[in-house]
Every structure is written in structure tokens, then in C-alpha cells.
Design a protein that fits this description.
71 residues, three-stranded antiparallel sheet, 56% strand, single chain, 7 strands, four-stranded antiparallel sheet
Length: 71
């Protein structure tokens, strides 16, 4: 799975082999960055609100919200 982040408030997941869309995660703010957890089952996103969200890519649910006062 390949993940892309966007200022349109989405994280899109794609099938790496076929290029077909796999899932879209609705993000509450424009997304600035993302990274995969080493297990490949979770994704961490960062957006304009300076919060980091940990997503379960299988369910599309946010499993943890990390807040930083330093942005």
C-alpha cells in the first residue's frame, strides 16, 4: 500500500502493484506529512492543527491522537 497526503483533507491509500485506489481517510485538517509505522498496519499523519494522528489502515480509524505545543 502506498499513502499520499493532501491539502484537500484526505489521506489516500493505493494498491502499490495495480495503482488502484484502496481507501480514503477523511482528515479533519489539511495534511502536511505522513509516515508508516514499521509494522505497516498504522500510519501517522500531521496537519495544520499540529496534532499527530495514528491511524489503523485496516479500519480507517484514528487509534491515537498526539498533541504537541511546539508544532
Amino acid at each position: 500500500i502506498v499513502a499520499t497526503a493532501s491539502f484537500d483533507r484526505t489521506v489516500r491509500l493505493w494498491d502499490a502493484r495495480s495503482g488502484a485506489p484502496w481507501a480514503t481517510l477523511a482528515h479533519p485538517v489539511p495534511v502536511h506529512a505522513l509516515t508508516w509505522h514499521p509494522d505497516g498496519q498504522q500510519l501517522v499523519t500531521s496537519g495544520e492543527d499540529h496534532q499527530r494522528r495514528v491511524w489503523d489502515v485496516t479500519t480507517g480509524a484514528i487509534v491515537q491522537l498526539l498533541t504537541s505545543t511546539q508544532g
